[in-house]
Amino acid sequence: MAPYPPQQPAPHGYPYAPGFPPPGGRAQPGRAFFLGLIVSLGIGLAYAGLLVASHKDLSRVGLQATYLACAAVLAVVVGVVTGRTGGRAAGPHVWAAILAALGAYLGVANGYVFTLLDIGGTDLLEAMLDHEPMSPHKFWWERLNGGIAIAGLAVAMVGAYGVANAVSKKQPY
Q: Digits of tens for pLDDT over the chain (173 positions)?
């Protein structure tokens, strides 16, 4: 015989007393967005730093390969963070896709800007942006050959959505 009598479920089939949340937490889509944003920007800035550190030795093919690798890393990390925090709803999964793509794009564009700052300081950057304000975007598009630029965004978006979806299905909420 058990030392305690079996507990009866609470009214309406809810097994916990009112006012107490079920164990395991609950979905927090707002927190998922902000954590995904922080992770995305952090990885994008780390990639921009990598571009600054290796701009003398990095070929076009090397830039394309590292861009696709950065997009894949963003997809996995942002997808895991938002999937674990955001729950099973589709909103956090979509935000994961958007944030991962944003991190991949900003990594290359900021890498270009930081490299200009490293080479010539603020004078070169001001001259470049006065002459061609969209030069970071053009660098992203032209240096990555357009198709690779879109492929990187697709890897980041589809990967982040898929990872967030898969991770959220393993959550208890």
A: 556 666 655 556 555 555 555 555 688 999 999 999 999 999 999 999 999 999 999 999 999 999 999 999 999 999 999 999 998 999 999 999 999 999 999 999 999 999 999 998 999 999 999 999 999 999 999 999 999 999 999 999 999 999 999 999 988 76
In the chain, which ranges are continuous DSSP H helix?
A: 29-54, 60-86, 90-131, 135-143, 147-169
Residue 46 maps to a domain: yes
Domain assignment present for residue 24? The answer is: no
Residues in the chain: 173
C-alpha span between 32 and 83 (Å, rounded): 8
67 token code pair = 């861009």
